[in-house]
Write a structure and sequence with these properties.
Elements lengths: L8 H6 L4 E6 L4 H9 L4 E5 L7 H14 L4 E6 L3 H10 L3 E5 L4 H11 L26 H8 L1 E6 L2 H5 L1 H5 L6 E4 L1 H4 L12 H17 L2 E5 L6 H6 L4 E6 H11 L7
Parallel strand pairs: 1-2, 1-8, 2-3, 3-4, 4-5, 5-6, 6-7, 7-8
Helix pairs in contact: 2-3, 4-5
């Protein structure tokens, strides 16, 4: 599991810590190192949209771990054990599952992310990278049970309407609001400023906090970070590698002169 000295993100969040994070889409070990050195409290390597396979995610994870102790999560599409198991066996600190819409999906996520009796994660700790290729087989299972962060993203009207059922699933640590995809159910689509979207987000926030689960989300604007922490968020992503590169590149262009 985590190497000695790396923060236990799950324990930090459950103890009340407020963590600023960022998404990584470029599948670049060099970019991953730069983002890790920037000082974020958590990084999320994307495997939902990024054009990269498991080996690319592992190379980026190794690069990040070479320069920083920042916890690293992996975002996957859905709650498939086939997608989740190799990432945890590779040594990621937790899973962020995209677009969870019902309690059944949430239960499948927990089953894939945890060993028995909590879940059904396959026993590969005798040889897996996460258990130092079996050298930590004695201690790894209990460490995995206590440290693996399980996050379900709410990104649809179905997910918002099933929020009470999803939060009731044991083993789900956090519900993470994805505002852009949420506009598909609370439109107009792509309009992050719509009143319908704001009402939906407020409803999800209220229900998650009432349930006792952790609340996470992507900031629509980085300046929203403080307000979101004040509203009860524990983990807020405020940037991505692609977004920062695009902004910096555009800002560096000199205005054309006639």
């Amino acid at each position: 599991m985590p190497e000695t000295g790396r923060p236990d993100l799950r324990a930090q969040l459950h103890s009340g810590a407020k963590v600023q994070g960022a998404f990584l889409f470029l599948a670049s070990p060099d970019v991953g190192e730069i983002m890790a050195l920037a000082g974020y409290g958590a990084l999320v390597i994307d495997r939902e949209h990024a054009a990269a396979g498991l080996s690319g995610a592992l190379h980026e994870l190794r690069a990040i771990r070479s320069v920083s102790t920042v916890p690293v999560l992996a975002r996957v599409h859905g709650a498939s054990a086939a997608d989740i198991k190799p990432l945890l066996d590779a040594g990621f600190d937790g899973i962020v599952a995209a677009d969870v819409r019902c309690a059944e999906q949430a239960r499948a996520l927990v089953e894939a992310a945890h060993y028995p009796p909590i879940g059904r994660r396959g026993a590969q700790f005798t040889v897996s990278r996460a258990a130092r290729y079996g050298l930590d087989r004695i201690t790894y299972v209990e460490q995995a049970r206590s440290r693996t962060l399980v996050v379900a993203m709410i990104e649809s009207r179905e997910g918002a309407e099933a929020i009470d059922a999803i939060t009731a699933v044991e083993g789900i640590d956090m519900l993470f609001i994805g505002p852009l995809d949420l506009t598909s159910g609370f439109g107009p689509y792509g309009d992050l400023g719509s009143s319908e979207l704001k009402k939906a987000i407020a409803h999800i926030e209220e229900r998650v906090l009432a349930s006792g689960r952790l609340l996470g989300g992507a900031a629509i604007d980085p300046s929203d970070l403080g307000d979101m922490f004040d509203r009860g968020y524990s983990l807020v992503t405020t940037a991505s590698d692609t977004g920062l590169l695009t902004q910096a590149s555009r800002a560096a262009i000199r205005p054309k002169t006639s």
